[in-house]
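Table 4 source record.
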Amino acid sequence: MKVLFDSNIYVSRILHGGLPAQVLKVATQAGLTLYVSETILEEVRDVLGRHGIRASLVGALVREIGRSARTVKIHRQKFWEVSLTKEDNYILEAAVAANADYLVRGVSEPGRGRADATQDCGRTDGGIPFRHHALQAA
């Protein structure tokens, strides 16, 4: 099974542990095939840097993610202008590039912190629909 985690899952795992850390551990132990894009890795670098984590440690953490997941190349697709937020189109594009069965995101709701939601996301490229999961961080 192919799974793509967005940058919020990796960042939350590193900064807070909790549910994102558990989900990534289970996914790895279950032998799921994890995918990531360079854009997701760059966002992880950026966010961890803004949280004051040393550049050398950020680099090591990003390399660890890169070793545990296959990196997909995103081909810009205009049909993904239907994203949850326009800034997140690259996440959907990465899921399509990976032909992911699951897309797992950590999302925030204004004033409520992390939100817990699951929804079906249809593929408009003719591929098999994938499930989208948003995790509530512990």
